[in-house]
Task: inverse folding
């Protein structure tokens, strides 16, 4: 059974505070770097990172972006999404470290009917990821094709 929202259920200006949060572990960061072949020492070398301005390893930003989008799935797009069409305006103003807990809010920025698929609609979303102290760690705009609940005859 789908838990996501259909095109008709998404209203421009609506804000959704997603219930699910996730604490990022060292394993998450190291495994993601290994899987994506990213050997940036700032992410995986504790001694190198100690000498950086952060004083510790920084979680891979692409992982953080993926996590922010992933935390939005339950209650937003689970079972109702057709495809991601674009990711734009990605900002990561504050670093994420092992042990930080990420939460996400989504705002519906815009929506329109699909011109070529009458059973679908296009929705532009803004996701904001914050860590436990409230600082923003990731913002992005995402354009998504959603299914319609009511099919046109």
Result:
């Amino acid at each position: 059974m789908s838990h996501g929202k259909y095109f008709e259920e998404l209203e421009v200006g609506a804000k959704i505070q997603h219930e699910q949060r996730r604490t990022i572990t060292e394993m998450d960061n190291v495994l993601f770097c290994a899987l994506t072949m990213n050997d940036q020492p700032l992410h995986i070398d504790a001694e190198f990172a100690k000498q950086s301005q952060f004083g510790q390893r920084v979680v891979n930003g692409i992982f953080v972006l993926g996590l922010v989008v992933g935390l939005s799935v339950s209650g937003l797009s689970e079972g109702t999404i057709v495809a991601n069409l674009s990711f734009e305006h990605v900002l990561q103003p504050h670093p994420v470290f092992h042990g930080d807990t990420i939460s996400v809010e989504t705002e519906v920025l815009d929506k329109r009917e699909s011109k070529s698929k009458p059973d679908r609609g296009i929705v532009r979303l803004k996701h904001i990821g914050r860590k436990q102290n409230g600082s923003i760690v990731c913002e992005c705009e995402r354009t998504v094709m959603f299914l319609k609940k009511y099919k046109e005859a």
User: Anything to note?
Assistant: The chain has a mean pLDDT of 95.
